[in-house]
Specification:
The complex is a heterodimer of chains A (about 100) and B (about 550). Chain A is mainly α and about 100 residues long. Chain A has three helices and two strands, in the order H-H-E-E-H. Chain B is mainly alpha-helical and about 550 residues long. Classes of the chains: A mainly alpha (about 100), B mainly alpha (about 550).
Chain lengths: ~100, ~550
């Protein structure tokens, strides 16, 4: 992979990781701890919403976040692998007389 | 068949299985001994990580702790799962790409420093040791109650089994026994939970039963409303409301999350898969397998609490069920008839409360309290042992690799042959098993409590050093060493001060910023980060070859060939 590609790969990687971590923080520390009492005013079935997020909902979200990460990173890897193989092909073409 | 016969059958069968796997998966090289030859499929590694991770504390203590903490128990649930998001996004793929055997390997090479390596070795051994004590103690409790042997015999049996497969198979043996142990422990946790959910709400999925209406026999109405009502009636805190301060819950949750991501025995599991993609994938599997237990635990907590209150409050002492007297003999449940009316008053006011219930029995005795069949009761024992032994083995391997690989091979005796290194690794596990067994027989405190401190230490030492090592190319050895020392010392002193030197001061009024010793690791993490970043600014940047390592681990494995 060329330096330019490596650089933009890393930038996309950071973007994916940081946006997923923002969701991670909002759900766990935001909804599950800081604003839990406010969310408890909303009820569904036998649950208060804040209590449910704190004890169960957040865990489901964590699993989903990791799967979104796996999916996005696989796509990103494929994209750059393809670009890298195209580059090496054009490199060989230039080298040939 | 009686509970004891069933228990004996289950324990015998599962232990036989573990020994069989150990013989099948003997390790012949250091690579097999340390990282199972990096050939573990992601699904198997996900199961092994889940078993490695879910300890006696998760299996035996957690649901019990939650049933007494109510909503505050959240910090265990979110803390011990949310850390996997950090692990998957910030550590696992890069460390797999780095591709060595241990966490001190990474710290030592990334920070081009023997002292950084030695500090990492010290932290790894200290953290794993604190953690392993809890496991041996957990195994001891289970043996003593279910097989009615004394705790010492129980711990010795547990030691012998772990010793057998860990010494023979190293990481390879441990990985495949952990896969088996995951199946045993999740089955043993789910079967009673499903039974109880059906019994109390008629719904076979505990996660849904948790928010459902109770059957008429249990008083009707939503489970959580009923539990809140019972708690208020008897003077306990309302179950679905928090008692601890918001900042304390915040800090404890963060400490457990950062600690989860920094625990060496979990991190090294990601060295065992073939490549970076598989590392990401196995983090996903691991969290799914963990989430099955962790979303069931709060339901079990609420069921068990409701059931306990219903079964014992205001019941005549002579009419208590059989399980009550059995657990009384272990001292885990105690009745003191203060007003001499011959009835059990179980209330929130300590002056008139007559019943003391140890948190650990909420899971262990739950099937008996609910009157489930004997084989279900016995299953719990096998599951608890699987949880304790699988985690103990993973921790012992960290201690062994730290000694044989990081201390001997990479620091003091670089010339030893692979065969000698393997021998040292086996001797180190042997010694570690003996020491852990001794501490298991003479335990310091509650299982989950002891384990909680290991997280604070991991959070304050490893987590920032590894994350900075990957995401900050400019981070150098001076910064990393200063950060790890500051974070570890600060966290360890705070915990030791409140837990051993001045336990009488251990309450919210004396805590610094209202943060309990369980949550102080978060502050330790921040101290580590600020020391590391400040020191690194004023010291020379790392040499070019180290910066090249960082460049390289940032790229996925497949794309690296240039």
């Amino acid at each position: 992979m060329s330096d330019k590609n490596a650089h933009s790969y890393w930038k996309s990687n950071i973007k994916i990781v940081s946006s997923l971590l923002v969701v991670w923080f909002i759900i766990s520390f935001g909804c599950g701890i800081l604003f839990v009492d406010a969310l408890d005013n909303i009820r569904f079935g036998g649950f208060k919403l804040g209590f449910w997020i704190a004890q169960q909902g957040a865990i489901f979200v964590f699993v989903i976040l990791i799967y979104i990460y796996i999916h996005l990173m696989d796509k990103l890897d494929d994209k750059y692998n393809q670009r890298a193989s195209e580059e090496s092909r054009s490199d060989t073409q230039e080298d040939s007389p | 068949m009686s509970v004891q016969v069933w228990t004996f059958v289950f324990v015998f069968l599962t232990f036989g299985l573990y020994i069989g796997i150990a013989i099948w998966s003997r390790a012949g090289s250091t690579s097999e001994f340390y990282v199972a030859g990096s050939g573990v499929p992601p699904l198997a590694n996900g199961m092994a990580t889940a078993a490695d991770w879910m300890s006696a504390a998760s299996f035996i203590s957690m649901a019990g702790l939650i049933s007494f903490l109510g909503r505050d128990g959240t910090f265990y649930l979110m803390g011990w799962t949310g850390g996997y998001v950090l692990l998957a996004l910030l550590l696992a793929p890069y460390l797999r790409k780095f591709g060595k055997f241990t966490v001190p390997d990474f710290i030592g090479d990334r920070y081009y420093s023997q002292s950084a390596r030695l500090i990492a070795v010290f932290c790894a051994i200290a953290i794993s040791f604190v953690y392993v004590c809890g496991q041996m103690q957990g195994a001891g409790i289970v043996f003593s109650r279910f097989l009615e042997v004394d705790i010492t015999t129980g711990v010795v049996i547990g030691m012998a089994i772990v010793f057998f497969y860990a010494v023979m198979g190293g990481m390879k043996g441990i990985t495949y026994t952990q896969v088996a142990q995951y199946c045993v422990l999740i089955f043993a946790f789910m079967v009673p939970a499903i039974f109880i959910s059906i019994l109390m709400t008629g719904i076979p999925i505990p996660q849904i039963g948790f928010g459902a209406e109770l059957n008429e026999a249990f008083g009707g109405g939503y489970l959580l409303d009923r539990l809140d009502g019972l708690s208020q009636e008897l003077g306990f805190a309302t179950y679905t409301e928090g008692q601890r301060s918001t900042q304390d819950v915040f800090f404890i949750t963060a400490a457990l999350m950062f600690g989860t991501a920094g625990l060496p025995h979990v991190i090294i599991r990601f060295f065992t898969v073939p490549n970076v993609r598989d590392a990401r994938r196995s983090a996903g599997y691991a969290l799914i397998f963990i989430a099955i237990l962790y979303t069931t635990a709060p339901a079990v907590a609420a069921f068990a609490r409701t059931n306990l209150i219903n079964t014992v409050d205001n019941v005549e002492y002579t009419a208590v069920p059989e399980w009550f007297s059995k657990w009384e003999s272990t001292g885990l449940i105690a009745f003191d008839d203060k007003n001499n009316d011959g009835r059990i008053q179980y209330v929130g006011d300590p002056e008139t409360n007559e019943l003391n219930v140890n948190r650990d029995i909420m899971v262990l005795a739950n099937p008996e309290i609910a009157g489930l069949p004997n084989w279900v009761v016995a299953l719990v024992a096998a599951g608890a042992l699987a949880a304790a032994l699988s985690t103990a083995a993973g921790l012992l391997l960290v201690i062994s690799t730290a000694v044989a690989h990081d201390l001997m091979k990479r620091s003091f005796m670089p010339d030893i042959s692979e065969k000698q290194e393997l021998l040292y690794a086996r001797v180190a596990i042997f010694v570690a098993v003996l020491v852990a067994g001794y501490v298991g027989i003479n335990p310091p405190a509650y299982v989950a409590q002891v384990v909680a401190y290991a997280f604070g230490l991991a959070a304050a030492s490893f987590f920032p050093a590894i994350v900075l090592g990957i995401f900050q190319k400019r981070m150098n050895r001076h910064g990393a060493v200063a950060g790890m020392i500051a974070g570890f010392l600060f966290t360890a002193s705070y915990i030791i001060y409140f837990k051993t030197i001045n336990p009488s001061l251990d309450n919210a009024e004396n805590w610094w910023l209202g943060i309990s010793p369980e949550g102080i690791g978060t502050l330790g993490t921040l101290i580590n980060l600020s020391f590391a970043l400040t020191v690194a600014r004023f010291t020379p940047e790392p040499p070019p070859d180290v910066q090249a390592i960082v460049e390289n681990i940032r790229l996925p494995g497949e794309a690296v060939a240039r």
